[in-house]
Amino acid sequence: MIRQTLMEAAGNLLAAWQRSLLALIGIVVGAGAVIAMLHAGTMARQETIRQFRQMGTDTLILRADSPQGLGNFRLGDIESVPAMVPTVGEIAPFMIGGGPVTYEGQTRNAGFIGATGSFADVARLPMAAGRFLSPHDRFELHAVLGSDLAQQLSTPFSAIRVGSQIRVSRYIFTVIGVIEPVLMNPMLPMDVNGTLFISLPNARRVMAVPQLSMAVGRLRGEADPEIATQQLQQHLGPGLRDATLNVLSARQLIAGMNNQVRLVALLLGAVGSIALVLGGVGVMNIMLMSVTERRREIGIRLAIGARRRDVRRLFLSEALILSVLGAALGVALGFAGGVGFAWMSGWPVHFSPMAAPLGAGVSLAVGVFFGFYPAVMAARLDPIEALRSE
């Protein structure tokens, strides 16, 4: 019985294939949008986690804030942290600034980081050529370039290399190293790839407002960042005078960004659901049109003994077939959309395990829900009135 009803419903849909195609497009686009947006949310979350894993989840960023802006750490207080704070293993203070850098007549604006020799190890910056700053470079005019800055300053006939001379302000610095391209670290205040690294004394020479206001640190082992923050407040707080210490840990940032990504994924899913509901409304409109056009057929069926539930089942079967086909094609469209998103963003492909069953299930439910009303309308037709209609 069910098989016969489904075959008859499929035949009716094929007989009016143009109308069926229009109804199908709405379901396919809606289901595909929901699934593709869930995949995009999953890829964004995975990319965030990948970036944090690369830089390490034990990272701490310390910043001194004052009512006038940034405050100042005392260098001795920062350097004594590994010995005085048991939960912090390494720490490197740094200054931030910026300005023009000139090489062979080419000038580029760059971010400056005035750092100690331990900065590269603490921030896990790999070298592509040469070496990073060392304690012996404190008063030497030596500089290290990020990969993008080195590329921007290079010319086809004179590439930046170790030993090249660059001008910063009125000083001539010698390049002693170039850092490998690295992912953007959301905890650092600037993109490492476009940054010039110099020693702290040299930073005081070339920066307009040199302030030792930030530091990057590493937790020891599985130390709790909350406990580390309390210990850092106790150790560094008295030396900050009117400034306050703010500590940001990678784990706190990961938790916050995961919540944001989850919220964005829900919003994207909601937008896709709206498209799916619109597809369901399209199914209902086309099914209502079908009921209107097939009034005489329905009247004949009822007149020769078909029960009202048989008519209702026939139209529900048509809505179900459209929903199943729409869900199947929507799943394929959603996966294709996910691959396209990964290609455009340059991220690795990650699919949400819940996207396909959720998108297909919702599209089935929407199709059947919006097909129920036309089926009830068809079943309630008066056979005499239906037979009178042309």
Structure description:
By secondary structure, this protein is an alpha+beta fold. Helices cover 55% and strands 19% of the residues. A six-stranded mixed barrel has the order 3-4-9-6-8-7. Strand 3 and strand 4 form a beta hairpin. It is elongated, with a radius of gyration of 33 Å. The mean pLDDT is 84.
Summarize the model shown.
This protein is an alpha+beta fold.
Please state the average pLDDT score: 84
What is the radius of gyration computed over CA atoms, rounded to a whole number of angstroms? 33 Å
Topology as a string of helices (H) and strands (E):
HHEEHHEEHEEHEEEHEHEHHHHH
Reported for the largest beta sheet, the result is:
6 strands, mixed, barrel
Oligomeric state of the chains? Answer: single chain
Shape: elongated
Report the strand count: 11
Number of discrete helical segments: 13
Which spans of ≥5 residues are poorly predicted at pLDDT below 50?
none
Helix content: 40-55%
What is the percentage of strand-forming residues?
A: 15-25%
Enumerate the strands of the largest sheet in spatial order, edge to edge or round the barrel. 3-4-9-6-8-7
Features:
390 residues; alpha+beta; 6-stranded mixed beta barrel; 19% strand
Secondary structure topology:
Layout (H helix, E strand, L loop, with lengths): L1 H14 L1 H39 L3 E8 L2 E2 L4 H5 L1 H4 L3 E16 L2 E10 L3 H4 L4 E4 L11 E4 L1 H7 L11 E4 L2 E9 L15 E5 H7 L7 E6 L5 H12 L7 E6 H44 L1 H9 L4 H38 L9 H25 L3 H6 L2
Parallel strand pairs: 4-9, 6-8
Antiparallel strand pairs: 1-2, 1-10, 1-11, 3-4, 3-7, 3-10, 5-8, 6-9, 7-8
Helix pairs in contact: 1-2, 1-11, 2-9, 2-11, 2-12, 9-12, 11-12
